[in-house]
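Researcher: Next entry in the queue.
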Amino acid sequence: MNYYERIEKEKAFLKTEEEIELFNKLKAKRLELAKEQNIAPYLIFHDTALIHMVKQRPQTEMSQISGVGAMKLEKYEVVFLGVMWRYLVSVKSSTYIRSFSLLSHLENSLMK
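Model: Structure for this entry, 112 residues:
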C-alpha cells in the first residue's frame, strides 16, 4: 500500500462531520505555519498524525500521537491543542470539554 492509499484508508476513520471539520482546521493551521516557515506542510505533521489527533483528541499533551516527537511537541503542541480545543468548544463537543483550566493554560500559552 502506497502513502496516498494509506492516507485515504486513515481518512475513512473520520466518520462524523465534526471529525472531518476538525481535520480540515488542523490542516489549515498546518498550511498556515508551513507558509510562514517556508517549508512543506508534511514537515510539520503528516496527515496521519492529524488524523490521530482528531481520533484521540488529546486534552493536555500530544506525546502519544504517532509522528509527534520531542521537537514537534516543543514547537507545535500548544498551537495544535489550541486549534482542537477552540473548535471543539465552539461545537460544544461533550467528549472534549472537561476542564476550564485547560482553556486558561492554552490561552496563556498562545498569548506569549
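Model: The mean pLDDT is 81.
Researcher: Noted, moving on.
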